[in-house]
Amino acid sequence: xxxxxxxxxxxxxxxxxxxxxxxxxxxxxxxxxxxxxxxxxxxxxxxxxxxxxxxxxxxxxxxxxxxxxxxxxxxxxxxxxxxxxxxxxxxxxxxxxxxxxxxxxxxxxxxxxxxxxxxxxxxxxxxxxxxxxxxxxxxxxxxxxxxxxxxxxxxxxxxxxxxxxxxxxxxxxxxxxxxxxxx
Length: 183
Prior knowledge:
Mean pLDDT: 83
Order of helices and strands: HHHHHHHHH
Largest sheet: none
Number of helices: 9
Structural class: mainly alpha
Shape: extended
Helix content: 55-70%
């Protein structure tokens, strides 16, 4: 990790280390070569911190990488692993959503044509369901506490149609309905 830090310090001390957008080149949406080097070094240092059991330092470096490149999949995946190991499941679910949205956006043209996306999704359906299952009890308690604090008559509830559409959007809906029908 020290070598990565030394390299980042040298880049920071280098004169004219502006990115393409700072130089007025607004036509390019790609990061400059220097920015890509900073991203790579910081991401690699984050990996070293993770392996050395320094999760807070690894998360800090992931944040730097994601500030420079919000679509950086390796940094998001590392954040997901670390947050999950720290039992910060809600934050981990945010990373899952970001990874899934990037995957969907990358495959948008194929999906619009009704074709199968390229590659498998970055996060399995099982992992998503696992995180939701871990978050659900706490969120239910929070929602119940919030509802009991409000006047029941002034509370607007979603329609039956909205609730059914939400339930049907989950991949396990038919399985759940089958289990409910069996009793």
